Amino acid sequence: xxxxxxxxxxxxxxxxxYAAPWDNSGIQLAGTRHxxxxxxxxxxxxxxxxxxxxxxxxxxVLSHHPLYMKPTAxxxxxxxxxxxxxxxxxxxxxxxxxxxxxxxxxxxxxxxGDELGLEDRQVLEPGNQFxxxxxxxxxxxxxxxxxxxxxxxxxxxxxxxxxxTGEVRILCHGxxxxxxxxxxxxxxxxxxxxRTAYFRTxxxxxxxxxxxxxxxxxxxxxxxxxxxxxxxxxVGRDQWNEIGPRPENVRRVAYLPGSxxxxxxxxxxxxxxxxxxxxVKYHAALDAVQAGLxxxxxxxxxxxEEMMRRFAGRLEQELEGVEIxxxxxxxxxxxxxxx
Length: 339
Fold this sequence. Notes:
Blueprint: H1 3-13, E1 26-29, E2 38-42, H2 47-55, E3 60-63, H3 79-87, E4 93-96, H4 99-102, H5 111-116, E5 119-138, H6 145-152, E6 157-162, E7 167-173, H7 177-191, E8 199-223, H8 224-235, E9 241-243, E10 249-259, H9 264-269, E11 274-278, H10 282-291, E12 295-297, H11 300-318, E13 323-326
Parallel strand pairs: 2-3, 2-13, 3-4, 10-11, 11-12
Antiparallel strand pairs: 1-4, 5-7, 5-8, 6-7, 8-10, 9-12
């Protein structure tokens, strides 16, 4: 499969426009290979993970966490330089689906909500909001059916239609229009077709809001101990940090994979009986206790490792002819019982 086809699939499953402004989702390292037979998936692009991918002869590596947040000169020894030294000679590509995947609605970042069977699911911490636009123009010729289908399949496009009068109308997210326009202009220029100016109208609906985490209701109320036993089996943990007063029963749950301390207020507003996340620091924990919010800090690693394992499974379905391998990681935070 062509590398550009793999990137297009990743951008459809985890659109880069969903990423947080501070993030670096997308291509981390442009390789020299044009085709891919093997794609490796991991949580962190650590040198040892990349070495395993190279040993397997992966043409493309997908990680969740970026190799860097801002471009850095590779002049200091460390994981960044060692990662480059590992991957560059192989010609493989490196791509990160970070907050673009975290905020993808009903994506694998929502795996815990799926397993818990949550109902009435809502975005916990809203992030980007995308308005829609209607774009119209006139063509004297009929719009090619294959081109119309291609445009309709682009990320953020709701529909493409041409009226009998020759008017072509495209409905899409405002943020997606420039990509749609570039593809349309190239096709019309290549076909020698003339068009009128684009007439763009901003629409109040449909409007899409994406963000981080979810809140929702369990199918039925569960006693606290029964709920935590269920959770422990799902995340593969038999211990975690517990914060705030325990509820007697659990019905409404909020969760945010990765680092979720910033969403404590959002979890409180959602009316959650339990908030599941990772990386809660001391003063945030104090705030949760004072607010009466019960938080289970199960760790950053376990929630996102499972997310990427499931994303690898999704790619097996989407990328026909490409062998997918998930490279398990190791939680850097290990518990020890002092004796």
